[in-house]
Amino acid sequence: MKDLKERAIRGGFAKLCAQAANYGFRIGSLMVLARLLDPKDFGLVGMVTALTGVLGLFRDFGLSAATVQQVDVTDEQISTLFWINIAVGAILATVTAAMAPVVAAFYREPKLLWVTMALATSFLFNAAGVQHSALLQRQMRFTTLAMIDVLSWFASAGVGIAMALAGFKYWSLVAAAVSIPIVATLSFWIASGWIPGAPRRGLGLHSMVRFGGGLTLTGLIVYVGYNFEKVLLGRFWGADAVGLYGRAYQLISIPTDNLNSAVGEVAFSALSRVRHDPQRFRNYFLKGYSFVLGLTIPITISVALFAPDLISVLLGPKWNGAAQIFRLLSPTILVFALINPIGWLIFSLGMIGRSLRVACVLAPLMIASYVIGLPYGPKGVALAYSTAMTLWVIPHIAWGLHGTVVSLRDIARVASRPLVSGALAAALAFAVQLLCGQALPPLARLVMGGAVLLSAYVGVLFYVMGQKTIYLDLLRGFGKRSPIEVSASVSI
Asked: What pTM does this model have?
């Protein structure tokens, strides 16, 4: 595919724009909902999703990634995978509904019975759109996918805010969560134009199911490792603690999730296409890695430096208790920027066994850190979580890269420039805020500190570290025009 680079850049740009819009919707709706609802309302829904999220990892059984990763795939194969996804979705919805009394009893909160049953329906809606989304991704129609992302989050924000204004309290959060898969799946069907056929046997799906199963199992183990602290906090500290920790965690996760979603889908598709060309594979990966890291570092610094002002402006004064948690979680933004791209590399190369082994080491490490921090409440858990993740970074990267065309030295070289730029910019922004910002209100301090930080960071990164050409190359790639084949049929 001669125009792969330009299509990947355009797709990445479209996804970044969509994620920027989604970021605005998520932050904007959170700002409104945080003022309309109480921490306990968020905590109630968070207590359920911490448990049902485990089942959510099975919603596509990794079969969407398997569809994208394969070099050749037939219409009959994808139709069969579609019906497998529907069956899995139905099973998950049934299991979640059956779990509702157990969830309510575990947390000793009767309200969670119907919340759990309502959230169970999202599994069916998700399952119906998995393969349609995979087809759009396989065809590299990332602009279409970006538009669907924006539409889904816009609908979710609108539903949540409207119901909160009407006085539905925590049910507004439930409705917002369920509306996302409904709108997205309808849009995937319309955009792809693909109608699944009847399922068939003997289509050589074993390798795809094995890949998807390994991916799902890895995701399950990692999810438990990353989210078990919310279960522990809910059980031992209650809904208010989960509400405060959960909103801080959500604010931390939004930029990481958005960036990984925007760049990760494009990178996975592009790297899967060139995995048999080592030089192109290495170059594509390192450019994507540099790009994600370059965007993430100023976000990490902003959270660490301006946490109280960010919480005050975004959530309001009744959430001040989340500010210290927010700051303690800030290192994880950078950690995920460093380790998430390793997943693109591992999965595009089909190295599912390695990812599973890494997950089996990471999850117990995370859980042990939560147990250590739990006696000290949400702040103790946040500190333990960030410490464990920081200590894990280098072993994770080294293990993931072992035996591939990308070396640890390559990563150190690529990461050093934005890291040094960020350190210098952080020192300057901290000094300016310390000297000039104490008399200003929170919003003014944020604007001033953010402007100084971003200006210093971009100046050092572009002109001192010589990274300007990388971003100009991305812009040139976006500007090039090349024929893009858009077909509703499956490429065989």
From this structure: 0.66
